[in-house]
Specification:
There is one protein chain. The chain is 70% helix and 1% strand. The protein has 14 helices and 2 strands; from the N terminus they run βαααααααααααααβα.
């Protein structure tokens, strides 16, 4: 018997309809962008080559979608099989998140109809960090599709195909560990290439790839905790606290490592004064740091890790911290030079909101109709 089951509940609910309305608004402005160009819906300019479509959909969105990556490393590399019940929901969220990132990249392209040039060797710009990011993200989307395929085959009872797939799935899983490591570190490398445009508090040079991977891992584990905590409330399932508390220990180690490296770099390079300069950058840095410290303090305590509400709040704080870290570095404190400023236009924001709404709607549909969620008796058993 499978360890997973569909929730089997009504798909179209009032929240689902509300998400549908947001999706339609976003699709309207998206159509406007494709018909009339980016200038019709965005506030982008020559100083800011990217806005929230790139920063949220790709830079932040792919990190939020690292749950499958983080659990794959935990289960298959470190052989922590007790977390296997959490794999399918994490893979689904990763597939949708990376799909959003890939779509966001196409939307942000000036000549979007030529996106296929990314995959043509004679058109590739091998001096561009974005080439590696684009190729790795594209390949990882395919990997996630294959990793999630057993869920689809199980739904349609294609047992013969499922057995054949399971024999070669280990190769796909290995790629599923390698590819995110490559493109997340490359996102950090982009900040190195941007040089003086990145605020000194976020310009850590050769440490950028390491910090990018660390925050991606931490956000990946945090999104799994967030989904697990929220599903127990929203779907009235038994809480998976015994599993999520174990992930809480991992998150503590990752945050502590990140903060030691982050503040060590600031102290060694004499940038401590910038932390208390009283400008926008210092304010954003202090807020960001507070959001990192809160889950560290909460999850260090066994009592905090054993409480479902504390786990949820800590996960939300960590997700906000990782999101703000990337927004600060790539957009909020970015200085392209005198005379340039950027704040996203309302249609620009609504495109992203609409795409996220579609992502949530697809997630709800799939978990209610496909065997994605772990059976409660399997997930709730501490030694399962």
């Amino acid at each position: 018997m499978s360890h997973y089951q569909p929730l089997g509940r009504r798909v179209v609910t009032l929240p689902f309809v509300f998400l549908g309305v947001l999706a339609l608004i976003g699709l309207y402005y998206l159509a406007d962008r494709f018909i009339n160009g980016m200038g019709a819906v965005t506030n982008l300019n020559g100083g800011f080559p990217w806005g929230i479509w790139v920063v949220y959909d790709i830079v932040v969105g792919t990190a939020l979608a690292c749950g499958g990556y983080a659990l794959a490393v935990t289960v298959y590399v470190f052989n922590k099989g007790q977390y296997h019940p959490l794999i399918r929901p994490a893979l689904l969220a990763s597939l949708l998140g990376y799909g959003l990132g890939g779509l966001g990249a196409i939307i942000d392209m000036g000549r979007w109809w030529q996106f296929y040039n990314l995959f043509l060797p004679w058109q590739m710009n091998f001096n561009s960090v974005m080439l590696e990011v684009g190729l790795c993200v594209s390949a990882y989307i395919v990997v996630l599709m294959i990793e999630f395929l057993p869920t689809v085959l199980e739904k349609f009872k294609a047992e013969a195909l499922l057995k054949k797939l399971n024999k070669v799935l280990f190769i796909v899983i290995a790629l599923g560990v390698l590819l995110p490591t490559m493109h997340q570190s490359s996102l950090g490398t982009m900040l190195i290439a941007m040089g003086w445009k990145v605020n000194p508090l976020w310009q850590t040079l050769h440490l950028q790839p390491l910090l990018a991977v660390l925050t991606a891992f931490t956000m990946g584990f945090s999104i799994v905790v967030f989904e697990g905590s929220l599903s127990s409330v929203g779907f009235r399932r038994k809480p998976e606290t015994h599993l999520l508390s174990g992930l809480g220990k991992i998150i503590v180690g990752l945050i502590a490592t990140y903060l030691v490296i982050r503040f060590g770099e600031i102290l060694v390079r004499g940038k401590l004064g910038l932390v208390f300069a009283g400008d926008l950058a210092s304010l954003m840095f202090l807020i960001e740091t507070a959001l990192f410290v809160y889950p560290l303090v909460v999850l260090m305590s066994p009592r905090g890790r054993g409480n479902a509400r504390s786990l949820l709040f800590a996960a939300v704080s960590m997700l906000l911290a990782g999101t703000l870290y990337r927004f600060n570095a790539f957009l909020i404190t970015l200085d392209p030079g005198p005379g340039y400023s950027y704040f996203p236009a309302l249609p620009e924001i609504m495109v992203t909101v609409g795409l996220v709404a579609i992502e949530i709607m697809v997630f709800l549909f799939v978990v209610k109709t496909f065997p994605v969620m772990p059976r409660e008796d399997h997930a709730a058993a501490p030694n399962a």
